[in-house]
Every structure is written in C-alpha cells, then in structure tokens.
Amino acid sequence: MPKYEMETLEATPEFDLFMFAELTGETRIDQELLDEFAPRWDDWVKKLNAYKLTNTEGENGYILVFLDADVDEEIDYIWNDSPAFALSFHNLAVCMVMTAARGLVPELEQGACAPLPRAPEGVKDATGELGIEWKDDNTINRKYAVFTPFPYSGGCAVCTMSESCPNSTVRQ
Length: 172
Fold this sequence. Notes:
By secondary structure, this protein is α+β, with helices and mostly antiparallel strands. Helices cover about 40% and strands about 15% of the residues. It has helices spanning about 15-25, 30-45, 70-80, 85-105, 105-110, 120-130, and strands at about 5-10, 50-55, 60-65, 145-150. A hairpin with a 6-residue loop joins strand 2 and strand 3 (about 60-65). It is globular, with a radius of gyration of 16 Å. About 25% of the residues are buried.
C-alpha cells in the first residue's frame, strides 16, 4: 500500500458573489443576507483546512480542502432556527471550499468540475491523523469538503460520480 505525505497548504479564498449566485441559482441576494455572510466568511476562513497529499511512490496526488466540524455544527444549529437562512449558509460553506479548491487547482474552474476519485487506503491512513474518517461510500465526516486529484487529471474518467462508475449515485 502506498504511503502519502501531507503538506499543509494556505487557502485564503475571497468571497465570489458570482460563484455563490451560480451555486444557488439566485439572480439576486438580499443585502441583509450579505451582511450576515461577511462575519461568517471571516470566521470560517480561519477554520478552512487545505492539504496536498503526495504519493511517496510518485503517483496519484490529491488535494483535500475541508471546514472544521464546528462549521458543520453551526449550520446544523441554524437549520433548527431558520431553514431558509441555513440553506444560504450551507451554500456559503460550499462556495468557500470550492473557491479554495479552485485557487489551489485552477483547472477546476476551467472544467467546472472537481472530480471525486475513490480515496486509496494510503490517503485514508494519512488523513486519519487529521480526524478525517472515510466511509464506505467515499464520503468523509465533514459536510464541507473537496477531495480531488492533484495535479488535475480530468473529470469523468476518474470521478466516482460519473454514470459509468459502479459507485455512481447519478446513474438512471
């Protein structure tokens, strides 16, 4: 089994209003909501983690970007109080991890896709040190995360979400 070395990366994404609007399908965002976003973005960016995982045998590198579990909990708490607001904050967290990933792997923006490969055992072992637990369905114990090949290696051919993949959840 290959071993993976982890390197901490600096990810300091700036809020991208156009990406947020694209994610949500909204053409208009209320100023009151934007005012709520600013302090959360500033707080959450401090809770954003980014790592480059390099195979010590030379193949299959990855980028992992995720928000701390307390961001998951904060958004869960908001769901109880205001589902509409919570959906907006959920989308803000998604926007943050995707913006960060695009900053680290610029090809993600060009392809409009962040391929989701199946994590090899070596990756699972390495990220375990971070408190990341991988589930059988290739998800982790963080709601807001991106795991993708680095360097960029295309989309559907390496993605567990592609229709031809036996792990696909989008197959009709």
